[in-house]
Amino acid sequence: MEITETKSGAVTTVALKGRVDSATAGTLRERLSKLVESVPARLVIDFRDVAYISSAGFRTLLIIAKQSEDAKGGLALCGFSSEVRRLFEIAAFTELFLILPSREEAIAALGSMK
Amino acid sequence: MKRPANLVYAPDDVPPPHVTAFNAIQHVGLIAINLVYPLLVFHLADAPLSLVSDLLAVGMIVLGAATLLQVLRLGPVGSGFLCPATFSAAYLSPSLLAAKAGGLSLVFGMTLLAGLLEAALARALPRLRSVFPAELSGVVIFMIGLSGGAAGLRSLLSADAVPMSPAEWGVAAFTLAAMVGLNVWGGGLLRMLCALIGLAAGYAAAGFAGLLGAGQLDGMDKAPWVAVPGLGHLSWSFELAMALPFAIACLAAAMKAVGTITVCQRMVDADWVRPDMRSATRGVLADGISTALAGLLNAVGTNTSTPSVGLASATGVASRRVGIAVGLMFIALGLLPKLTTLLALMPRSVMVAALLFAICFILINGLQVMTSRLLDSRRTLVIGLALIAGTSIEIFPVIAAHAGASWRPVIGSSLVFATLVGLALNLLFRIGVKQSAAIGVDPQRIDSTVIDDFLRGHGGRWGARPDVIARATFAANQLVEAAAEHGWKSGPLSLEASFDEFNLDLRLSYEGKALEFPDRRPSDEEIRDTDEGVRRLAGFMLRQNADRVRSEAQDGVATVHFHFDH
Fold this sequence. Notes:
The complex is a heterodimer. Chain A is an alpha/beta fold. Chain A has one domain: Transcription Regulator spoIIAA, CATH 3.30.750. Helix content of chain A is about 40%, strand content about 30%. Chain A has helices at about 25-40, 55-70, 80-90, 105-110, and strands at about 1-10, 10-20, 40-55, 75-80, 100. Chain B contains 23 helices and 7 strands. The interface of A and B includes residues 54, 55 and 96 of A.
């Protein structure tokens, strides 16, 4: 899985490419944890190039969400394909995260946070 | 679920009272044409005017109750969509047969049984899709139109009946022309209410032609404005020879209810991909209970009204409130004896026109359903031979007349014969349809792209829908991942996929512990803090992802079956 970081003001966007599964969840967790810990980050995770997320990937997202909440940061997800949206729905995860259609909307939503 | 742009009022929305009332009137107007079906049955049974008036009143109350049952979602009953009930052509041909063979009590007894059978079938329907595919549903709908239309016209115009006078033919032609003219050239409301206006025009023309004289209208004058219909007529009888025609009608009604409810699902959800069998099953259960209620209270069989769903789609008003108003309106109409007596007096010439008008739409609907799928040689032969079988019975009544007593239930009705020929051929032609493939997954070299390529490649060649393949691909990958983490001990994992046009099945087996597929999602804390939570989340997602999951373990080998409806 490829992980690319870009900064836009106070918001860091992490674009993922590939699969979020048990083979890649550890690396992703490490990278995201560092970002959340280093600054009380406002973090956007862009799923535009993700085709698959498994239970291990969902666990990573829950851990990062908790860390972000503890650090009083902000977290938003964006760029879902219809398949990724379906997986979030069957895992009952859609209500747990701020999910926006595009990266721009996600950055704008976190950028306006107080 | 995403709200479509053209949907003005969704099922849960509350439209203003005037919108609710106006839409409900349009639905009642659309459904009115189907009153001709019970009238034909009562006419054939030679029922007296007061009895027909009472039976029609009870029938309207049944339609009201059936509509409420479909709309309100009481317990496991009702689809929750604006899907009003109507008297169904599916039961016309069997009801006419029963009326001729044993009078009205036999019609009502068999209708009661058919309703109970439909209710019992409701849960099994999703599994019957391969036995009763769309093209065969189309054949049945077409034959409902053909056999019902022929039987109805035969009862009105048979050699035993008084021949139609030139005046009657004139009124029939005028009534039909009014309905057709308004339907083709009328706009908006005139088109929506063409059948109701045509019926009114037919009554007026019959009055002018002297076919509805003062003597006949006496009964209406004597009837009170408001009264609860009498139930002194209640009677039921049963006959084994009628079981098959009514069972076929009940199956046809159930399949049509599934089709109508599927249209409702698509109408209210822009993200609709495939039929949701939960609401369809609830709807069929309501439909069966309604028909059983009809038989119990002495009315003819009911079904979901396809034109009503078309109206909701055209107007964008799909609110349940409208359905409740339709139900209450029918119940109120059933309490107006002057109106039901007037309907009971419907002249033969008006009935002929109404029947022809209603049958046209059923025949064309049947043709559309038949040709809605790509017709390969198997489907062509199922449709062609079933139609030839059915129409032969109508054209050559001598076939049924010379059949032995044991064959009469099969050959005595064109609808039954065509359906049975279609069912038998469909089952025969399913031989050799199933295709399958298998691969092994090495625990040391799990490569998800191999699983993806295997399922997408075979799925593409088999003609499986991409959304179903995506679900199967997720199932295989998530199971391999979860098994590798939690239960798979050693040796290769075998993945077998099999497909026919209605089913995609995966079978995965490996040495190790079977996974659990809980129906309750673990809590966020369990998922975040424990491996057990992640494993249970995997099982929960896999259960939600497939239409059916079955897991077993024997001699240290775990096997998981995933089924996907196609």
